Amino acid sequence: MPLDPAYEHGLLLLDGEVAALPPGPLLYVPPGREVVRLSGAGRVLLVGGEPFAEEIVMWWNFVGRSHDEITAFRKEWMEGDGFGTVRGYDGAPLPAPALPGTRLKARGRVR
């Protein structure tokens, strides 16, 4: 599968089996790769785009610029504000896990 080498990508196995792609977390593919070779019988989700130019904090399903921003996003999620409505899902929203006991740190482009 061709890739844009200026982009960073993520691969997620949706179902089946694909060599070198375990089920579970997103597989990160840093910028610079022009192709990824996959073999097997499975469905894979490919996402990608230009790397963030600024430092970011990623935690659970939230992406922000600081620990405080992630804390605010978690509070909004838990209170049911600001994230819209999920249609077609018959159940309560998943609760966000508790934040770790230390401040979350931003990361730059280098992984």
From TrEMBL:
Pirin C-terminal domain location: 24-80
InterPro entries listed in its UniProt record: Pirin_C_dom, RmlC_Cupin_sf
Pfam name, any one: Pirin_C
Entry protein name: Pirin-like C-terminal cupin domain-containing protein
Lineage, uppermost ranks: Bacteria, Bacillati, Actinomycetota, Actinomycetes, Streptosporangiales
